[in-house]
Amino acid sequence: MKKHSRAVAIAMAFPLGAPAWAQGAPDPSGGGGSGVRTLNTVTVSDGRPTSLPTQIPTTIEGATHEQIAETVNATDSEDALKYLPSLVVRKRYIGDFNHAVLATRASGTGNSARSMVYADGIMLSNPLGNGATFAPRWGMVSPEEIERVDVLYGPFSAAYPGNSAGAVVDYVTRMPTKLEAHVKLSGFASNFGLYNSHSSPAGQQLDLSLGSRSGDWSWWLSASRTHSKGQALVFGNRLVSAGTVGSAGTPVTGAVLGLNPSNQPWWLVGGSTIYDTTQEQAKLKVAYDFSPTVRATYTLGAWNNTTHGSVDTYLRDAFGRPVYSGRVNIGGRSYNLDAPSAALAPTETALTHYMHGLSVKSHAGGVFDWEVAASLFDHARDTSRTPTTPLPGAFNGGPGRTTDMGGSGWHTFKAAGTWRPIGSAEGVGAHVVDFGFQQDTARLRTQVGNTLDWIAGPAVTPFSAFNGNTRLQSLYVQDTWRFAKDWKTTLGLRHERWEAYGGQLGNATKLLDFAPRRNSYDSPKAALAWQATPDWLFRASTGRAVRMPTVSELYQGSIDGNRIVNTNPNLRPERSWTTELSAEHDLKGWGLDGVLRTTLFFENTRDALYSQALTNLVSTVQNVDAIRTRGLEMALNAVDVGVKGLDLSGSLTLTRSKIAANGGFPSSVGHEQPRVPKVRATLLATYRPDARWSYTVGARYSGRQYGTLDNSDGNGATYMGFSKFFVVDARIRYRIDRQWSAAVGIDNLNNNKYWAFHPYPQRTYVAELKFDL
Fold first, then answer.
1. Structure confidence at residue 427 (pLDDT)
2. Domains and CATH numbers, the chain
3. Model pTM?
4. I want to staple 758 with a disulfide (CB 3.0 to 4.6 A). Which of 81, 233, 326, 763 is the partner?
5. How far apart are CA 368 and CA 612, in angstroms?
6. Count of helix runs (H) and strand runs (E) in the chain
7. CA-to-CA distance for 682 and 168, rounded, in angstroms?
8. Residue 287 in contact with residue 217, Cβ under 8 Å?
């Protein structure tokens, strides 16, 4: 990469957005490019701009397609976020479709509803629930189609709802200006060893894309297929103390003695949820330019996922035969492998999701620009299956349960405008006023039924049902004003009207209704930037975020007689005030071409939504009265560090997040917020000795964390635990010629065994061959 393009990449990746700096990049004010860094927004002329509000003086980080291709072994779209400050994605295996949750500065991997993910303006965040099984729909974007990804930290833009409390991720995918075609073939392999589970997870991936532009029309067609075999994710277990002393049960060997997260001795009896996953993704984008400044774009995406979850028992009887179920005897104690739930159970999953997006947008850059956009995400087919009869007989079918979420989904609408008063485009007194109306609607349909054939049979009788809807209607306005030569501010306000309706909870014989709810909230925002010297920029941002309860948090529960229990349809929304103070320093005075940012962040959250004990036996989502978070984030991005061609970036995040008040669970007060470690860090070094080769080494660290509100799970290095980790990655890329390139890489080079409830992947090898027309 040439030095100029590397400098532009720095500006885009650290931070991109007003105020952001691009040394050597064109001066957006038309001054001819003096090389002085100013409050102006970076303008990137050779790529599509982010849809994030870059005029707001707050933290935005990002990466371009070229940066991702050079530095990251990207097999899924979420891998593009791997080295951005303070971000962690809980990706358990390649193609993880239902647990890859994004964690941010003050939110852990159990809080999927506290961040938002978009692709070309279409919402990929799953608004139906909060937690591991409501991860963003990453599969709708392949790594190869990403032109850039940007992240807005914190709820500082009035253009986004309260789910932006943690971050807003914006993927911009490719749209051609001429005929182009791309083919990439990838393979990956690893070895996995844990307890008595030993396997060789592996797979392959094929990406195809073709696009062109002719006159006012442009189009892009892409498709990808991933086949991935993962490691065991769930481990059947029984507490040693739960066994009955005596000789009852089949004597077995092979069980592994360990400690659970609370340091209680338990037996690990086998691994399950060993996924064999096949995913296909296809996307069509068509754009038409009504004029040089008005474009209409339609996007159709389809994603299909078929997953077989197998099991591997450790147990053997006296004849060496595998034992999966029944009553067994381990070490002189008997245990029931079938109750209270099956220790080992296979699964089958079949999903087909569609997304549609249509937008008409003006981008003249003059006095007034506007946009009208709508999107739909549809769970056309969404079925998972598991047996209710013991193994090994269930391997061939038999009774079981199906969970059908077909008909679930969400749709959005936006009408927005940007007004720039005449005569104030760039200088002192310049205003940029953004305003708009938005509506986001979520629809949950979950039918659990009994079937005679758990592998392929239809549901014949009902078992339970969870249904409901939420709708959020919003009006917002924000004004970015350069009120003095070296000063810029943004003031914003968002008004939201939220309603939940159509809530239903059912069992095998009845369906009970919840009363509808309606509430309104206001969320003010403010940001300020001061260019103190050519080398120093200071910023302050603050904002309120109101995160509404999701459908599943409101309505999933159970029925006792004619009463609804184990759920609270009157949950209060989370209400957070977040503030950040930043100082950015141009490192030119240190002899470096780069930027160092230091940010203090503060978040106070009332009525945080967490699952906690309702009784001694039942847990459900409740409001935690108060959580207080304080932290420091430092991020560096520099090129030609000491040696020409050596680029260096890194981040360090120190966080102190505590439960300040919790009347529903007093023993949690004073303890750390679950899954928010005290320390996170990344370091990424890339060396390009010439135009063909690039060598990258990266490291990621996360400190100790807990999974429970009272931090009673002190043993993180075990199944269901949350451990610290230090992981080293490596990648080598070679440009064979203008059209061909190849890359090899290793993730988790040091083969660290670490956990986020489930085990993360161990050492994984990746190889790629790519052709670009």
1. 76
2. 3-772 (2.40.170.20)
3. 0.92
4. 233
5. 49
6. 3, 43
7. 20
8. yes
